[in-house]
Amino acid sequence: MKKYLIFISSCLLFACQSQEKVSVNVPELTDGNPSTAWVGGPKVNKIIFDNQFNSPIQSYKVYSSGNTPEHDPVNWTLQGSYDGKSWVVVDERKDQSFCSRFQEKLCTIANPSNYKQYMLEAETANGDSLILGDVLFYEANLRAGWEDFKYPRVNFKVLDPEAKGSETYQTLVQNPDEYVQYHTQKVAEILFFSAKDTMNDVQEINYTLKEYDGVSAKSGNPPSIAIVYSTKHIQRSAEESLYKLDFETRGVLYHELVHAYQFEPKGIGSYSTNKEFWACIEGMADAVRAQAGLFDMSTRKPGGNWMDGYRTTGFFIQWLTTKDPDAIRKFHLTVRDLDVWSFDKAIKSMFGPESSIECIWNEYQEFLTKSTNK
Where are the alpha helices (DSSP H) in the chain? Predict the structure, then answer.
């Protein structure tokens, strides 16, 4: 009798252990913050997103976490369901890798349908516990218009490999070439309407880590440009957290890559000889960084002038998107198209001849004052 009891108990234990764990509506995966990671188990993990979607999903993103790469998903399947019982495979990915921590993989769904629920089945390469940063769904095809974007060649170099910042950078970024290429397209998506637009032909980026006291700098002009990034700044940024380093590294890279792809004002001198030229160039770079969500926007304060450049000008240009979602792109087009460029002419071109830089700037200042007093 005891033998049978032992046998039955063993079978029940095995059955419990072999049951698949299914997670449903995990908050950490839909909060838009890949640092709030979800920790799964080894082998295949199943996660159901039971949000009762009202429209077909055409794109989704899977994010790596801040943990080590062996915990990243390598193979996954996305399934859709109308009733939560029958499931249909809508997308499948194999042998995936992430170029950095907190990095997205954008996937499109070939045959979208009005599924009410989605289930992600994912696993790591060698049976380690799966850790995901985020899984986000989109009704739009986020690749549309950018399928033919031309990625530049990247030459990555570390001048001071013994520097602490160099080692820290490797913890954040596993594939520097792919990492830089990814950001070139993200910058272009903010500056231009599609990959078919006229843009600078950036063919080569020499990206270098160097031990020095600054932050970063871009030199050269298309087709070949160079960017240097300070390992001292890397280490300072990493003191708070790896996520803070990620935030800063992406933001700095956005800024420098804008300088590679942006048009330059015509008819008003040069970067070193004309303040309006300089303010436009540096303001646009920070506007794109702000639009990408890579500034702490709570630091915006009233005051200054649109000619102050960098964040003061950049936050203003980014704020224009509250008046027109395409404002940054249209502002950039004025830089390309106006024979003698100025901030006032750009504003008039965008919002009509009755507008002026003074009026729009004052409106922006009123917005900042109200926001500060809340």
Answer: 2-18, 164-172, 176-191, 231-238, 242-261, 275-291, 310-319, 327-337, 343-351, 357-373
Distance, CA of 174 to CA of 266 (rounded, Å): 40
Cα separation of 29 and 32, whole Å?
Answer: 7
- Phi and psi torsions of 28, nearest 5°: -65, -20
- Please write down the long-range contacts of 12-21, taking CB distance under 8 Å and 24 or more positions apart: 20/44, 20/46, 21/45, 21/46
Q: Which of 125, 104, 117, 105 is nearest to 44 (CA)?
A: 125
The 10s digit of each residue's pLDDT in 12-67 is 333 334 446 799 999 999 999 999 999 999 999 999 999 879 999 999 999 999 99
Between 311 and 12, the higher pLDDT residue: 311
What residues contact 336, with CB distance under 8 A and at least 6 apart?
198, 263
Q: Tokens 């792919």 — which residue? A: 178
Residues 109, 59 contacting (CB under 8 angstroms): yes
Tokens representing 307?
């000619």
Among left, alpha and beta (phi > 0; psi -120 to 50; other), residue 301 is beta
Q: How many residues does the chain have?
A: 374
What residues form DSSP beta bridges with 221?
A: 224
Domains of the chain (ranges; CATH) run: 20-138 (2.60.120.260), 153-261 (no CATH), 275-373 (no CATH)
The structure tokens 């907190």 sit at 102
3-state SS class at 63: strand
Pairwise CA distance, residues 132 & 63, whole Å: 6
Q: State how far the alpha carbon of 109 is from the alpha carbons of 80, 137, 143, 263, in Å.
A: 11, 11, 11, 35
Tell me the C-alpha distance between 292 and 159, whole Å: 29
